[in-house]
Amino acid sequence: MLFRNIILHSRTTSPRPVPGCSKYMTGMIRRYSQHIPARKCEANTAHPGTQKSLPITPAINFKNFSNHHLAFQHKTTKELLRSLFVLYSCSIDTLVNNSFKLLRMGEWLMGPRLLRLLISPFYYQFCAGNSDQEMMVTAHNLSKSGVSILVCPLVESDVGDQQLRSELFNTNLKETLDLVHMAAQNNYLKPIPAMCHVKISALLSPDVMMRVHDAYELLSFKDRISVVMAVADAMDPNTSKSTPSIGPLALSPEDTKDLLDCLPRIYEIGCVATESKVILLIDGEYTYVKTTINLLSLAMMRIFNSEKLLVWNTYQGYLKNTLNVLQHDLDIATELKLKFGAKIVRGAYLEMERSRAQRLGYPDPVNDTYQLTCANYDNVVELMLRAVHNNQEDRAVMVATNNEASIRKAVSLLHELGLDPQKGNVVFGQVYGMAENISVPLGKAGYRVYKSTPSGSVLEVLPYLSRRLNENRTVFKGARRERQLLSRELISRLRSTS
């Protein structure tokens, strides 16, 4: 009855367009895998090997975004029912607002085992699983539609997390290195490169990052260039230097030491990614540490992007100043002759950014409305697409959004500028478990598409899922169209079997 009501609701609701390395992670995954019922794997789970490039059309037929057969042909009927149930549930404000409380209460009342069974539909909707084999199956299934995985870490940290010290940073480093290897091992669409997210806050205390951010903000453009060069030199052990320096960046001796101590960790990740041929996408995180992330990303680009675009930074369209920040970093990249890649997202920390601004009494950094965010997002994407057009060897962009209108605009501009979608300097990204009607048609048409895919135990994933539910409520509310397509595909399958 529940699924029948969900299907009827989706049918009667009109679509609304809305703008080399450690073995730690492997051991951890195996240790926790017993907590989750294993996902049924396909009989043939062997590495399918390298696939040929798909033929590219002059421009994708946007009508395919409404083709439910094309979007969901790789999913079982059971998976369709699960997707419909989960996406419908995620559109209910009461459930989303109290998700973390409900999860904690459920664990207390029912115990960990029953809770895992209860939330398994949500877990498997948005997570690849908790074992190497489950990740392999997920990546293999996506590859059939021309879609690659973008391995996503589960670290969630913020200012005030005092437990973040060198011992934990080293643990996070090992986990990140294993995620890089996981991305490389599950790349079934070669020569398309694998991709992996990296969180700087897993390697350096957010409190230190905030103070570096404040100090960097006070510098002139010329001094910022000097700091990028100094940090890159301090990060690279092959650079001859007597004493590591951070240039004109005014920090306390303690913060300077912490910053310098994190650089070897970042350098090791870059080296492993280079050897594994994995592109690193540096997460954007919070506004009050973002400039630190930009600084370290530019320093990494100076070291690791000499031959290929290995390091890309993230820019968040929901922030009012993103267009200016991106242009600023592009200018630094031009001055230093860096290869520069950018992932453009809407953003995932909206409520926390607004509540912090209100609590501390500074201007809200987030756009006032979702419509303004969409307009800003499209402008930021256009800036990067034109930058790629003007310098196709040294610039790259990922258009990372579940929003169909923004995808349409980006694809149209891509072809207007005469860019080749198979070259690899313009790619697309969506969240695993959502926007199949966008990802699959793009992948089938030969565009390079990635799904941001977390992997881990239920206990690890709970905070991640709760955060994503709360911060992406607008996205879930806007999933009416996807629910409608899911319903159509379900009805079509039921009719064909009757």
From TrEMBL:
Gene Ontology MF terms: FAD binding; proline dehydrogenase activity
Q: Which residues form the Proline dehydrogenase domain?
A: 204-475
Record's superkingdom?
Answer: Eukaryota
Catalysis performed (reactions): L-proline + a quinone = (S)-1-pyrroline-5-carboxylate + a quinol + H(+); trans-4-hydroxy-L-proline + a quinone = (3R,5S)-1-pyrroline-3-hydroxy-5-carboxylate + a quinol + H(+)
Record-linked InterPro entries: FAD-linked_oxidoreductase-like, Proline_DH_dom, Proline_oxidase
Query: Which interval of the chain is the signal sequence?
Result: none
GO BP field: L-proline catabolic process to L-glutamate
Note one Pfam family from the annotation.
Pro_dh
Enzyme superclass (EC): oxidoreductase
Which ranges does the record mark as transmembrane?
none
Which EC number(s) are documented for this chain?
1.5.5.2
**What are the record keywords, sorted?**
FAD, Flavoprotein, Oxidoreductase, Proline metabolism
Per its UniProt record, the required cofactor names are: FAD
Q: What Gene Ontology cellular component terms go with this record?
A: mitochondrion
The role this protein plays is: Converts proline to delta-1-pyrroline-5-carboxylate.
Q: Which family does it belong to?
A: Belongs to the proline oxidase family.
Q: What is this protein called?
A: Proline dehydrogenase
Q: Which organism is it from?
A: Meganyctiphanes norvegica
* Lineage, broadest ranks: Eukaryota, Metazoa, Ecdysozoa, Arthropoda, Crustacea
